[in-house]
Amino acid sequence: MRDFQRTAEPAGAERTEARGDRFVVQEHHATALHWDFRLERDGVLVSWAVPKGLPPHPAQNHLAVHTEDHPLDYIDFEGEIPEGEYGGGQVMLWDQGTYECEKFNEREVIVVLHGRRARGRYVLVKTGGKNWLMHRMDPPDDPTREPMPSGLSPMLPTTRKTLPECDSESESKSESDWLFEPAWGGERVLLACEGGRVVLTAADGADVTERFPEFRALGRALGSLALILDGEVVVLDGTGRPDPALLARRKARPEQPAVFFASDLVWLDGHPAVGLPASDRRTLLAKLDFGGPTWRTNPTSDGQALLAAAGQQGLPGVYGRSAASAYEPGQTSPEFVFVPVPAKDR
Ligand code: MN
Questions:
Q1: Cα(28) to centroid of ligand 1, in Å?
Q2: pTM
Q3: In the predicted structure, residue 18 carries a pLDDT above the cut 60
Q4: Is the pLDDT of residue 8 over 80?
Protein backbone atom coordinates (compact mmCIF):
# COMPACT_ATOMS: atom_id res chain seq x y z
CA MET A 1 0.00 0.00 0.00
CA ARG A 2 2.86 2.38 0.73
CA ASP A 3 5.48 3.55 -1.76
CA PHE A 4 8.52 3.79 0.48
CA GLN A 5 10.51 5.54 -2.28
CA ARG A 6 8.20 8.50 -1.95
CA THR A 7 7.59 8.87 1.76
CA ALA A 8 9.85 9.58 4.70
CA GLU A 9 8.29 6.74 6.64
CA PRO A 10 10.63 4.04 7.90
CA ALA A 11 10.60 1.08 5.51
CA GLY A 12 11.68 -1.42 8.11
CA ALA A 13 14.99 -2.26 6.48
CA GLU A 14 16.99 -1.45 9.59
CA ARG A 15 15.44 -3.32 12.46
CA THR A 16 16.04 -1.81 15.85
CA GLU A 17 16.77 -4.19 18.69
CA ALA A 18 13.47 -5.77 19.63
CA ARG A 19 12.57 -5.10 23.25
CA GLY A 20 9.11 -6.49 22.83
CA ASP A 21 7.27 -4.29 25.26
CA ARG A 22 6.90 -0.87 23.67
CA PHE A 23 3.79 0.91 22.44
CA VAL A 24 3.16 4.11 20.53
CA VAL A 25 0.12 6.29 19.87
CA GLN A 26 0.45 8.47 16.77
CA GLU A 27 -2.03 11.27 16.10
CA HIS A 28 -2.59 11.02 12.37
CA HIS A 29 -4.11 13.95 10.50
CA ALA A 30 -5.15 11.92 7.46
CA THR A 31 -8.37 12.55 5.52
CA ALA A 32 -10.10 11.47 8.71
CA LEU A 33 -8.29 12.30 11.96
CA HIS A 34 -7.44 9.20 14.00
CA TRP A 35 -4.97 7.89 16.52
CA ASP A 36 -2.84 4.89 15.55
CA PHE A 37 -2.34 2.58 18.52
CA ARG A 38 0.58 0.20 17.99
CA LEU A 39 1.95 -2.55 20.20
CA GLU A 40 5.37 -4.10 19.70
CA ARG A 41 4.83 -7.85 19.28
CA ASP A 42 6.89 -10.60 17.61
CA GLY A 43 9.11 -8.10 15.81
CA VAL A 44 6.37 -5.91 14.35
CA LEU A 45 3.97 -3.21 15.49
CA VAL A 46 0.48 -4.68 15.72
CA SER A 47 -1.76 -1.73 14.87
CA TRP A 48 -5.24 -0.30 15.26
CA ALA A 49 -6.59 3.03 13.97
CA VAL A 50 -8.76 4.57 16.69
CA PRO A 51 -10.92 7.36 15.20
CA LYS A 52 -11.67 9.01 18.57
CA GLY A 53 -8.43 8.16 20.33
CA LEU A 54 -7.91 6.10 23.48
CA PRO A 55 -11.01 6.21 25.70
CA PRO A 56 -10.03 8.06 28.90
CA HIS A 57 -13.00 6.73 30.87
CA PRO A 58 -14.45 3.22 31.31
CA ALA A 59 -17.91 4.57 30.44
CA GLN A 60 -16.83 5.37 26.85
CA ASN A 61 -15.81 2.56 24.50
CA HIS A 62 -14.14 3.54 21.26
CA LEU A 63 -14.06 1.82 17.88
CA ALA A 64 -10.58 0.56 16.95
CA VAL A 65 -10.01 -0.59 13.38
CA HIS A 66 -7.33 -3.25 13.01
CA THR A 67 -4.78 -2.17 10.38
CA GLU A 68 -1.71 -3.78 8.83
CA ASP A 69 1.33 -4.54 10.99
CA HIS A 70 3.99 -1.85 10.77
CA PRO A 71 7.78 -2.23 10.90
CA LEU A 72 9.30 -1.73 14.35
CA ASP A 73 11.18 1.45 13.53
CA TYR A 74 7.87 3.15 12.76
CA ILE A 75 7.62 3.51 16.55
CA ASP A 76 9.53 6.82 16.41
CA PHE A 77 7.99 8.16 13.22
CA GLU A 78 6.51 11.60 13.12
CA GLY A 79 6.29 13.93 10.17
CA GLU A 80 4.46 14.41 6.93
CA ILE A 81 3.20 11.57 4.74
CA PRO A 82 2.88 13.19 1.28
CA GLU A 83 -0.54 13.99 -0.15
CA GLY A 84 -1.69 11.22 -2.45
CA GLU A 85 0.19 8.55 -0.50
CA TYR A 86 -1.72 6.04 1.58
CA GLY A 87 -2.55 7.85 4.85
CA GLY A 88 -1.29 11.21 3.56
CA GLY A 89 -1.11 13.92 6.25
CA GLN A 90 0.73 14.91 9.41
CA VAL A 91 1.73 12.24 11.95
CA MET A 92 2.54 13.36 15.52
CA LEU A 93 3.81 11.24 18.39
CA TRP A 94 0.96 11.47 20.90
CA ASP A 95 2.52 9.10 23.39
CA GLN A 96 5.13 6.38 23.71
CA GLY A 97 5.89 3.98 26.52
CA THR A 98 6.02 0.38 27.59
CA TYR A 99 3.23 -2.08 28.25
CA GLU A 100 2.56 -5.27 30.14
CA CYS A 101 0.71 -7.90 28.16
CA GLU A 102 -1.97 -9.78 30.08
CA LYS A 103 -3.70 -11.42 27.11
CA PHE A 104 -3.03 -11.46 23.36
CA ASN A 105 -5.04 -13.59 20.96
CA GLU A 106 -7.04 -13.25 17.73
CA ARG A 107 -10.09 -11.88 19.49
CA GLU A 108 -8.93 -10.17 22.65
CA VAL A 109 -5.94 -8.13 23.81
CA ILE A 110 -5.47 -6.92 27.36
CA VAL A 111 -2.59 -4.58 28.12
CA VAL A 112 -1.46 -2.24 30.88
CA LEU A 113 0.04 0.91 29.37
CA HIS A 114 2.85 2.83 31.02
CA GLY A 115 3.04 6.02 28.99
CA ARG A 116 3.09 9.71 29.76
CA ARG A 117 -0.52 10.28 28.63
CA ALA A 118 -1.78 6.74 28.15
CA ARG A 119 -1.68 4.92 31.45
CA GLY A 120 -3.73 2.03 32.76
CA ARG A 121 -5.39 -1.21 31.76
CA TYR A 122 -7.12 -1.49 28.39
CA VAL A 123 -8.88 -4.29 26.57
CA LEU A 124 -9.39 -4.56 22.80
CA VAL A 125 -12.16 -6.94 21.76
CA LYS A 126 -12.80 -8.01 18.18
CA THR A 127 -16.42 -7.33 17.24
CA GLY A 128 -16.41 -8.33 13.57
CA GLY A 129 -14.15 -8.07 10.53
CA LYS A 130 -11.52 -5.42 11.16
CA ASN A 131 -13.58 -3.76 13.85
CA TRP A 132 -12.56 -3.99 17.47
CA LEU A 133 -13.77 -2.14 20.53
CA MET A 134 -11.32 -0.44 22.88
CA HIS A 135 -12.35 -0.26 26.52
CA ARG A 136 -10.59 1.18 29.53
CA MET A 137 -10.71 -1.36 32.37
CA ASP A 138 -9.18 0.89 35.02
CA PRO A 139 -10.89 3.91 36.55
CA PRO A 140 -9.89 7.14 34.77
CA ASP A 141 -6.23 8.10 35.28
CA ASP A 142 -7.62 11.27 36.83
CA PRO A 143 -10.09 9.82 39.39
CA THR A 144 -12.26 12.95 39.29
CA ARG A 145 -12.63 12.77 35.51
CA GLU A 146 -16.23 12.44 34.26
CA PRO A 147 -17.54 11.39 30.84
CA MET A 148 -18.55 14.37 28.73
CA PRO A 149 -22.31 15.00 28.86
CA SER A 150 -24.36 15.08 25.68
CA GLY A 151 -27.70 16.73 25.00
CA LEU A 152 -26.84 20.10 26.55
CA SER A 153 -28.08 23.24 24.83
CA PRO A 154 -26.85 26.82 25.25
CA MET A 155 -27.86 29.23 28.01
CA LEU A 156 -29.96 32.05 26.60
CA PRO A 157 -29.85 35.74 27.51
CA THR A 158 -32.51 37.95 29.03
CA THR A 159 -32.98 41.08 26.91
CA ARG A 160 -32.74 44.38 28.81
CA LYS A 161 -32.92 47.98 27.65
CA THR A 162 -29.90 49.22 29.59
CA LEU A 163 -26.55 47.89 30.73
CA PRO A 164 -26.81 46.30 34.18
CA GLU A 165 -24.50 48.77 35.96
CA CYS A 166 -26.69 51.67 34.75
CA ASP A 167 -29.63 50.20 36.59
CA SER A 168 -30.42 52.11 39.79
CA GLU A 169 -31.67 48.92 41.41
CA SER A 170 -28.26 47.34 41.22
CA GLU A 171 -26.13 50.23 42.43
CA SER A 172 -24.13 47.88 44.59
CA LYS A 173 -22.79 46.30 41.43
CA SER A 174 -19.89 47.94 39.69
CA GLU A 175 -18.74 47.53 36.12
CA SER A 176 -16.27 44.83 37.16
CA ASP A 177 -19.13 42.66 38.37
CA TRP A 178 -20.14 42.12 34.75
CA LEU A 179 -18.30 40.78 31.72
CA PHE A 180 -19.36 42.41 28.46
CA GLU A 181 -18.70 41.28 24.91
CA PRO A 182 -19.95 42.20 21.44
CA ALA A 183 -23.06 40.52 20.04
CA TRP A 184 -22.60 39.59 16.37
CA GLY A 185 -26.18 38.83 15.44
CA GLY A 186 -25.36 35.16 14.91
CA GLU A 187 -26.78 31.95 16.22
CA ARG A 188 -26.06 30.90 19.82
CA VAL A 189 -24.69 27.33 19.94
CA LEU A 190 -22.81 24.92 22.14
CA LEU A 191 -19.73 23.55 20.41
CA ALA A 192 -18.68 20.19 21.84
CA CYS A 193 -15.44 18.55 20.76
CA GLU A 194 -14.15 15.13 21.74
CA GLY A 195 -11.74 12.87 19.91
CA GLY A 196 -11.28 15.59 17.29
CA ARG A 197 -14.99 15.54 16.37
CA VAL A 198 -17.11 18.68 16.67
CA VAL A 199 -20.85 18.69 17.43
CA LEU A 200 -22.85 21.94 17.31
CA THR A 201 -26.10 22.20 19.26
CA ALA A 202 -28.54 25.07 18.69
CA ALA A 203 -30.69 26.79 21.30
CA ASP A 204 -33.63 24.49 20.55
CA GLY A 205 -31.45 21.43 21.10
CA ALA A 206 -31.12 20.64 17.38
CA ASP A 207 -27.84 19.21 16.11
CA VAL A 208 -26.70 21.72 13.45
CA THR A 209 -23.22 20.26 12.89
CA GLU A 210 -23.86 19.37 9.23
CA ARG A 211 -24.68 22.98 8.37
CA PHE A 212 -21.15 24.10 9.24
CA PRO A 213 -18.55 21.76 7.73
CA GLU A 214 -15.81 24.39 8.24
CA PHE A 215 -15.67 23.49 11.93
CA ARG A 216 -14.32 20.01 11.16
CA ALA A 217 -10.92 21.72 10.94
CA LEU A 218 -11.49 23.07 14.44
CA GLY A 219 -11.96 19.52 15.73
CA ARG A 220 -8.70 18.45 14.14
CA ALA A 221 -6.91 21.43 15.66
CA LEU A 222 -8.19 20.56 19.14
CA GLY A 223 -6.99 16.95 18.71
CA SER A 224 -7.63 14.89 21.84
CA LEU A 225 -8.71 17.86 23.99
CA ALA A 226 -12.33 17.37 25.13
CA LEU A 227 -14.35 20.52 25.73
CA ILE A 228 -17.70 22.26 25.35
CA LEU A 229 -17.76 25.94 24.45
CA ASP A 230 -20.66 28.37 24.33
CA GLY A 231 -20.58 30.90 21.54
CA GLU A 232 -22.08 32.48 18.47
CA VAL A 233 -21.90 31.18 14.91
CA VAL A 234 -21.72 34.14 12.57
CA VAL A 235 -21.77 34.22 8.77
CA LEU A 236 -19.72 37.07 7.33
CA ASP A 237 -20.53 38.95 4.13
CA GLY A 238 -17.97 39.84 1.46
CA THR A 239 -16.60 42.72 3.56
CA GLY A 240 -16.15 40.65 6.71
CA ARG A 241 -19.27 41.96 8.45
CA PRO A 242 -21.70 39.61 10.17
CA ASP A 243 -24.82 39.08 8.11
CA PRO A 244 -27.82 37.45 9.86
CA ALA A 245 -29.64 37.15 6.50
CA LEU A 246 -26.75 35.11 5.08
CA LEU A 247 -26.78 32.94 8.21
CA ALA A 248 -30.48 32.25 7.67
CA ARG A 249 -29.84 31.36 4.01
CA ARG A 250 -26.81 29.30 4.91
CA LYS A 251 -28.25 26.00 3.62
CA ALA A 252 -28.48 27.44 0.14
CA ARG A 253 -25.17 29.34 0.31
CA PRO A 254 -22.63 27.02 1.90
CA GLU A 255 -19.77 28.97 0.32
CA GLN A 256 -20.28 31.84 2.78
CA PRO A 257 -17.74 31.34 5.56
CA ALA A 258 -19.02 30.91 9.10
CA VAL A 259 -16.99 31.94 12.14
CA PHE A 260 -17.43 30.65 15.70
CA PHE A 261 -16.92 33.26 18.45
CA ALA A 262 -16.32 31.45 21.77
CA SER A 263 -17.77 33.28 24.78
CA ASP A 264 -17.89 30.79 27.59
CA LEU A 265 -16.51 27.47 28.74
CA VAL A 266 -18.95 24.75 29.80
CA TRP A 267 -16.71 21.67 30.00
CA LEU A 268 -12.98 21.08 29.92
CA ASP A 269 -11.06 17.81 29.76
CA GLY A 270 -13.28 15.64 31.94
CA HIS A 271 -14.52 18.37 34.23
CA PRO A 272 -17.66 20.52 34.27
CA ALA A 273 -17.11 24.28 34.37
CA VAL A 274 -20.79 25.23 34.74
CA GLY A 275 -20.59 25.70 38.51
CA LEU A 276 -17.60 28.06 38.37
CA PRO A 277 -18.18 31.83 38.40
CA ALA A 278 -18.30 33.33 34.89
CA SER A 279 -15.07 35.24 35.60
CA ASP A 280 -13.21 31.97 36.32
CA ARG A 281 -14.69 30.36 33.22
CA ARG A 282 -13.42 33.31 31.20
CA THR A 283 -9.94 32.89 32.67
CA LEU A 284 -9.92 29.21 31.64
CA LEU A 285 -11.19 30.13 28.17
CA ALA A 286 -8.42 32.72 27.77
CA LYS A 287 -5.79 30.12 28.76
CA LEU A 288 -6.95 27.88 25.89
CA ASP A 289 -5.73 30.53 23.43
CA PHE A 290 -8.65 29.47 21.23
CA GLY A 291 -8.30 30.83 17.71
CA GLY A 292 -7.92 29.65 14.13
CA PRO A 293 -9.03 30.26 10.55
CA THR A 294 -12.77 30.16 11.37
CA TRP A 295 -12.85 30.35 15.17
CA ARG A 296 -12.02 33.06 17.69
CA THR A 297 -12.44 33.99 21.32
CA ASN A 298 -14.97 36.82 21.63
CA PRO A 299 -13.18 39.62 23.51
CA THR A 300 -14.58 41.18 26.68
CA SER A 301 -14.46 44.93 27.21
CA ASP A 302 -16.13 47.93 28.82
CA GLY A 303 -19.92 47.71 28.40
CA GLN A 304 -20.58 51.37 27.50
CA ALA A 305 -17.72 51.49 25.00
CA LEU A 306 -18.86 48.24 23.38
CA LEU A 307 -22.42 49.47 23.10
CA ALA A 308 -21.29 52.72 21.47
CA ALA A 309 -19.04 50.83 19.05
CA ALA A 310 -21.84 48.40 18.23
CA GLY A 311 -24.05 51.37 17.28
CA GLN A 312 -21.37 52.79 15.00
CA GLN A 313 -20.59 49.48 13.34
CA GLY A 314 -24.14 48.31 12.84
CA LEU A 315 -23.88 45.41 15.30
CA PRO A 316 -26.99 44.47 17.27
CA GLY A 317 -25.73 45.16 20.80
CA VAL A 318 -23.74 43.62 23.65
CA TYR A 319 -23.93 40.57 25.87
CA GLY A 320 -23.20 40.75 29.58
CA ARG A 321 -22.63 38.03 32.14
CA SER A 322 -22.62 38.55 35.87
CA ALA A 323 -19.05 37.70 36.88
CA ALA A 324 -20.23 35.56 39.80
CA SER A 325 -22.92 33.67 37.90
CA ALA A 326 -22.97 29.98 37.03
CA TYR A 327 -23.66 28.62 33.55
CA GLU A 328 -27.16 27.19 33.20
CA PRO A 329 -27.46 25.07 30.04
CA GLY A 330 -30.79 25.39 28.27
CA GLN A 331 -32.00 28.14 30.63
CA THR A 332 -32.81 31.78 30.04
CA SER A 333 -30.75 33.45 32.74
CA PRO A 334 -31.29 36.91 34.29
CA GLU A 335 -27.52 36.99 34.86
CA PHE A 336 -26.79 36.62 31.15
CA VAL A 337 -28.17 39.66 29.37
CA PHE A 338 -28.47 41.02 25.86
CA VAL A 339 -28.61 44.80 25.59
CA PRO A 340 -29.53 46.05 22.09
CA VAL A 341 -28.12 49.26 20.67
CA PRO A 342 -30.69 51.98 21.56
CA ALA A 343 -32.92 52.87 18.58
CA LYS A 344 -31.56 56.47 18.51
CA ASP A 345 -27.98 55.15 18.00
CA ARG A 346 -28.73 52.68 15.22
MN1 MN B 1 -2.92 6.15 10.48
A1: 5
A2: 0.87
A3: no
A4: no
